[in-house]
Amino acid sequence: MATAYTVPAILRVTRSTQSGLFTMTAAWQVVYTNSAPYAWLFVSADINLTPMIAGDTIDIRVRKINVSGGAEVVHSLMTYSDVQPVNHPAVRIGPLMDVYGVEVAMRQTAGVLADIQCEFFDAFR
Q1: What pLDDT score was predicted for residue 108?
Q2: 91 in a structural domain
């Protein structure tokens, strides 16, 4: 006979309230940020680049704070240009363990400013 036990979740993964539609700008625009003062997990980002057309260029930057009281450092910087491949129109980022802070920012450096859908997921205790 099976026995059922209640085990509290270590982390609860949820869709971030920072998810949504972002109109690109020429300057860096923060689309996700979190600096909770305890260990947490940036689970993933799904950034849909389907609206990009010929002549568009979008940069996506992920920055992280590695030490208490430290400055943000670039974890990764990606550049996407023109129409994205039909079979791979989205960018996926993650996961990142963090204690001090994570920031995802985007900018459009060429073309007509696009509206980009971003979905973020994180996990907290």
Answers
A1: 98
A2: yes
